[in-house]
């Protein structure tokens, strides 16, 4: 109960002083700018794709059966990519969920070849996203990246990111994480939503 109360207090404080929170988040990006960081992973939610979940006729290989990025979402993805390029942080790799909205977001970032990662696929329909084996595999991937140089960017979905970090992100927003020596994921900051 004390942990929940502490979390609520932290959220209340951050929302009361949003400029301080934004300054803190930009400070970590400023620290990484022009560097070749070790162990950092950006877990990014796909850009704006209006709606919730997917249509009942959803087919993985058919974008016409899925929720897709809006024109605003596509523009936001491009802007996020430009923001990341201005940071001048070497990108090791870009991975994406196989859902069309996540893959298109990753491609529109225009910062490297996009590799599909089935473990980033949406867990929206799953009863226990935290305990899902795909969440464990992404956690292990982040832990294994601990000694690697270059930013690993993983584009996925709200539920997946929340299951890994305990925080939610807006469309197009990302959470910067790093694993410690104990294998715990630490939230280092956020990338600003478009």
Strand order of the largest sheet: 3-2-4-1-5-6
| CATH level-1 class | Alpha Beta
Low-confidence parts:
1-20
Helix content: 25-40%
Radius of gyration: 16 Å
Descriptive report:
By secondary structure, this protein is α/β, with parallel strands linked by helices. The protein has one domain: 3-Layer(aba) Sandwich (Rossmann fold), CATH 3.40.50.1240. It is 40% helix and 18% strand. Strands 3-2-4-1-5-6 form a six-stranded mixed beta sheet, sandwiched between helices. α3 (71-87) packs across α4 (100-109). It is globular and about 45 Å long. 34% of the residues are buried. Mean pLDDT is 87; it is low at 1-20.
List keywords for this structure.
194 residues; six-stranded mixed β-sheet; 6 strands; globular; disordered N terminus
Short description:
This protein has helices at residues 2-16, 18-32, 71-87, 100-109, 133-144, 158-165, and strands at 40-45, 91-96, 114-116, 151-156, 174-179, 185-191.
């Amino acid at each position: 109960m004390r942990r929940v109360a502490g979390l609520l207090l932290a959220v209340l404080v951050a929302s009361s002083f949003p400029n301080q929170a934004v300054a803190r988040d930009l400070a970590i990006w400023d620290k990484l700018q022009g560097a070749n960081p070790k162990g950092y992973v950006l877990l990014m939610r796909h850009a704006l794709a209006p709606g919730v979940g997917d249509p009942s006729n959803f087919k993985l290989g058919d974008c016409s059966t899925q929720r897709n990025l809006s024109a605003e979402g596509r523009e936001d993805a491009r802007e996020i990519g430009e923001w990341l390029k201005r940071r001048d942080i070497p990108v090791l790799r870009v991975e994406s969920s196989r859902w069309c909205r996540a893959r298109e977001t990753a491609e529109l970032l225009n910062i490297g070849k996009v590799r599909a990662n089935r473990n980033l696929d949406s867990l929206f329909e799953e009863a226990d996203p935290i305990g899902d084996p795909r969440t464990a595999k992404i956690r292990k991937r982040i832990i294994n990246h601990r000694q690697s140089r270059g930013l690993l960017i993983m584009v996925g979905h709200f539920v997946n990111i929340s299951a890994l970090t305990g925080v939610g992100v807006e469309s197009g927003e990302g959470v910067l994480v790093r694993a410690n020596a104990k294998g715990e994921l630490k939230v280092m900051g956020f990338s600003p939503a478009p």
